Amino acid sequence: MNRLHFKNWIKDRYGISRDRNDGLLSDAIIHDCLEDAIRQVAKDCLVLPITREFPLVSGQWKYPMPDELIRIREAYFIDSDGTRIPLSYYSPEQFLAYRATDTDTTEDPGYISYASFESPVFSLYAKAAPIYDYIASSYITEGSVRTVIDSGVNFGKTLDGTRITPGAIVQNLTDGSYGYVEILDTITNKTSGTATSGTGNNILADTGKNFTLLGVEEGDIICTPSTGVVTGYAFVKTVGTTTLTYEDYHDPDGSTKRIAAGNTYKIGKAQKIRLSESAPHPGLREGATNDFTVGTTKATITGTTFTATTVTGSATTGAEVGDIAIASGGSHGKVSAVAANTLTVDMWVGGTPTAGEMVTCNVCDQYQVEGEFRTQRMLWIGPTPSASCALGAENIEVLYHAVPEMPKKDTDRIEMDERYRALLEECLEWKVGARTSKPLSEINALRQLYDNDVRKYQGDIYAPPLRKPLTVWGNRAKGGTRGIRFTYPVD
Questions:
Q1: 25: which residues sit within 8 A by CB, 6+ positions away?
Q2: Which of 265, 279, 327, 470 has the most CB atoms within 10 Å of its CB?
Q3: Mind listing the pLDDT tens digit for each residue in 93-103?
Q4: Spatial distance between the Cα atoms of 449 and 455, rounded to a whole number of angstroms
């Protein structure tokens, strides 16, 4: 059951040659309608039950749920003994009212709500050994006003591949202020120059460069112009020798669509975000500004050696747990333990530093970057957890129904059981009818046919295992078995 089957099926219904791709019913329209039909059937029949576990985080009562979620069926707290304890559901009003009087934290949460939607948080590329390739929040490494500077991350690479675009929100988690992204920028350039002939159609050409030898890679950004205030940026997609391709060009007013021959440019990792000064004005606390601060140096370490979570060397006193250790090469980590001439950090954001880099310890503002639109469902957990736990111990487990993956090629299988084939065909015919010139009466009839038949499938996912039919004769005890009337051994 793949995309090609449904495309051929609907063309046969409309009397269109299977190899034809034009007219009022193009392949593109069929693909769109099939995706609509898949979502419709998945929603109506709850065909894809999924379980997901995630660890509790100290002080955090909001947890993002995956975009694929259609409906939550149940949530459990798994205690230290491995027992699943169902969590009570409260309406948002009940949850907030109860939480307002129950401000204490607890090791064992007891209730949930999930009506809230918020802007999704970008997971940024961190290259932090051994496992933290992406992180949801980080720390400022250079103090500034209306500019986020973080030498450890790459804003051009995110976990799900989405791009940070103008209008995205930067939250200062330390002081509660926030602002809106205007432009991404670099700290140190890998190269700069002037676009030559051959530039256009999302291609940057420079006959005087070898982008591969210069270390340009996917996820780097191209900024224009090469000097002064950046007015536009794009993301590197593929790298050649004298050319590279890019995508998602952005500027504040949307007036420029691509880089043109003659434009100057610079390329590097995206480690700087400039915030907008125009409307919509940042929603700041009264009297606050978009200041991102790095405190004065409290301690230094020289003659260093590093592991994935430590730095050892000749250290001055003054470092404390919670400080941010910043290596001269740009990597940084949050200090979790202090010993004589050794600091332990949670991870090195930006990768493990090179031996010999000087390390300073500072108090730095924490931040995160969120999408422009509120599209991510949040699970509220109460009371607020008092301690964090590693995955696999005292987790939250959620059973939910998901939207299937959409087919991208004709040979891609539909992520549904074969039993839904006929229902999906009915739904596809209804969706296609709504996109063509069929009379409204016929469209309504197709929808009614689907609505009538969907009831036959809604219980399939919950059905118990099949057994022999219950009949008077089939339930009599047989030789060599024990039982009573209307019972029988399980096959």
A1: 10, 11, 14, 16, 432, 436
A2: 327
A3: 989 888 766 66
A4: 11
